């Protein structure tokens, strides 16, 4: 099992402003956290700070939290139904920080037992170095034994940008090879090393997702998860990358996995296909939570809603896009594709109008797959406008991966490129910068993790039959 800690960037800045305000002495504070358990990764999501009041800690070069402060923090965590994190600084430290003997004794042997007994969750310890680097650890419960210290492999800060602080003992820096010379020349070897350690999920590997995957492999992403339970059909051949007539009837995810390995420029590249899973089922949902970034390349409202939920509740940025073209008598009536990134500090897919909440329920009931229902919509002139061809898919994949590049590199110094709709009629891109409506349910889910899950279907992955590549 891999361990991470994550927090919204806004909260990270608030904590850093307090903790590094005066660096003559170490500083301390507590925070609440909630769990997000994936298939292979457990993440402690830092939710809210508990700053000390006057007289609740003593700074003497080192720093000590006094019993009233510790008791208040434990009670706040208990009443919130959350775990407790203790955070202290190493003002002269640089990079990922280890633990001194006294710090480890206090966290593991003293505080972690008390905290588990009160909150039911392990204690999370975090250290902030003077250069702004975060490190984290989790004290896993061991019945009748000393709690086990589990070092996190990274700490994620998620907002306008995605910033990862890596534990270089567990996730050593990657060295870009000659294949990545041109790519590295754009944003430098340090950022490329970060990209080479990212795990990115592509949900839906059809016309858009297959191209997105190819681009990610070319720029050096270290690990890619591909999730799609569809098979290749004849009508996919005009727009599905890699697919030929001999692939009809085979798994799309397996097809893309086999081919993208040839394109990868990262010598340590890994690709995993999940051809039996859906993001709207429990196991697929858990697999997605193992990723650092997710691409939403789906064309249904229910998967979009689940991905929107993950972006906020589990602090995993989701890059989404859609194609909307409609013709009549071979003349274009409406033509647009658009990309957007969602997560903490950004407008959610629901508030951006990327899916219709009313259609989510119809999707759950299977109506959007029912030919008679679609035929009725067609008669009413309300058939979903999902016409797509390869040029549109390539254009959207380009927009989505540009959103990814800015999210993880900030080379344009924007972080958030907004919602980017491309209007085919005018040939113009009209960025929109929006905020969520007041009281948005997804904003309220931020860093709540597994305490607030989306509506998921019964897992039927074992009943599906998929061809091999």
Walk me through the structure:
With 469 residues, the protein is an alpha/beta fold. The chain folds into 2 domains: 2-166, 3-Layer(aba) Sandwich (Cytidine Deaminase, domain 2), CATH 3.40.140; 178-463, Rossmann fold. The protein has helices at 9-19, 67-80, 101-119, 181-195, 207-218, 252-263, 282-288, 301-313, 349-352, 357-364, 371-379, 390-409, 441-444, and strands at 2-8, 28-37, 41-50, 57-60, 62-65, 83-90, 123-129, 134-140, 148-151, 154-158, 162-166, 199-203, 223-227, 270-274, 293-296, 318-328, 331-342, 420-423, 428-429. The strands form 3 sheets. The protein has a 9-stranded mixed β-sheet, sandwiched between helices. Helix 5 runs parallel beside helix 6. The mean pLDDT is 92.
- The strand count comes to 19
The fold-level CATH name of the largest domain is: Rossmann fold
The CATH first-level class of the largest domain comes to Alpha Beta
Count the domains.
Answer: 2
- CA-based gyration radius: 24 Å
Largest sheet: 9 strands, mixed
Inertia-based shape: globular
Cα end-to-end separation: 30 Å
Mean pLDDT: 92
> Can you identify the CATH superfamily of the largest domain?
NAD(P)-binding Rossmann-like Domain
Give the strand content. 25-35%
Structural class: alpha/beta
Level-2 CATH architecture of the largest domain = 3-Layer(aba) Sandwich
Strand arrangement within the widest β-sheet reads: 9-8-7-6-2-3-1-10-11
The poorly predicted ranges are none
User: Number of DSSP helices?
Assistant: 13
Secondary structure: helix percent: 25-40%
């Amino acid at each position: 099992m891999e361990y991470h800690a994550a927090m919204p960037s806004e909260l990270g800045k608030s904590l850093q402003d307090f903790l590094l305000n005066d660096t003559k002495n170490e500083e301390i504070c507590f925070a609440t956290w909630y769990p997000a358990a994936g298939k292979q990764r457990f993440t402690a999501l830092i939710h809210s700070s508990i700053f000390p009041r006057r007289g609740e800690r003593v700074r003497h070069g080192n720093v000590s939290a006094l019993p009233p402060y510790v008791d208040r923090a434990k009670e706040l965590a208990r009443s919130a139904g959350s775990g407790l994190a203790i955070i202290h600084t190493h003002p002269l430290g640089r990079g990922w920080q280890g633990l001194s003997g006294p710090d480890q004794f206090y966290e593991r042997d003293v505080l972690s037992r008390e905290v588990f007994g009160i909150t039911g969750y392990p204690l999370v310890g975090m250290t902030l170095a003077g250069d702004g680097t975060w490190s984290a650890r989790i004290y896993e419960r061991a019945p009748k034994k000393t709690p086990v210290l589990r070092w996190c492999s990274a700490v994620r800060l998620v907002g306008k940008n995605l910033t990862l602080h890596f534990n270089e003992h567990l996730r050593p820096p990657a060295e870009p090879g000659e294949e990545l010379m041109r790519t590295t020349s754009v944003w430098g070897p340090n950022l490329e090393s970060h990209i080479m350690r990212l795990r990115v999920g592509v949900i839906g590997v059809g016309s858009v997702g297959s191209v997105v995957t190819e681009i990610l492999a070319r720029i050096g992403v270290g690990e890619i998860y591909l999730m799609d339970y569809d098979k290749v059909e004849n009508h996919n051949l005009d727009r599905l990358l890699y697919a030929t007539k001999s692939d009809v009837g085979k798994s799309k995810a397996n097809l893309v996995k086999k081919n993208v390995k040839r394109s990868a420029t990262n010598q340590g590249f890994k690709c995993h296909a999940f051809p039996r899973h859906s993001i709207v089922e429990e196991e697929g949902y858990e697999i997605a939570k193992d990723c650092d970034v997710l691409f939403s390349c789906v064309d249904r409202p229910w998967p979009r809603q689940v991905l929107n939920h993950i972006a906020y509740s589990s602090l995993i940025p989701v890059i989404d896009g859609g194609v909307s073209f409609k013709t009549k008598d071979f003349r274009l009536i409406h033509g647009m594709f658009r990309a957007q990134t969602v997560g903490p500090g950004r407008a959610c897919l629901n508030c951006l109008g990327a899916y219709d909440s009313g259609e989510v329920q119809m999707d759950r009931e299977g109506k959007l797959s029912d030919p008679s229902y679609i035929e009725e919509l067609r008669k009413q002139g309300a058939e979903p406008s999902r016409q797509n061809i390869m040029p549109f898919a390539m254009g959207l994949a380009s927009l989505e991966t540009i959103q990814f590049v800015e999210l993880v590199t900030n080379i344009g110094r924007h972080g958030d490129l907004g919602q980017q709709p491309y209007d085919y009629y005018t040939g113009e891109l009209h960025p929109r910068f929006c905020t969520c409506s007041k009281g948005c349910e997804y904003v309220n889910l931020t860093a709540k993790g597994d305490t607030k899950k989306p509506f998921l279907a019964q897992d039927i992955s074992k009943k599906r039959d998929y061809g091999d590549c």
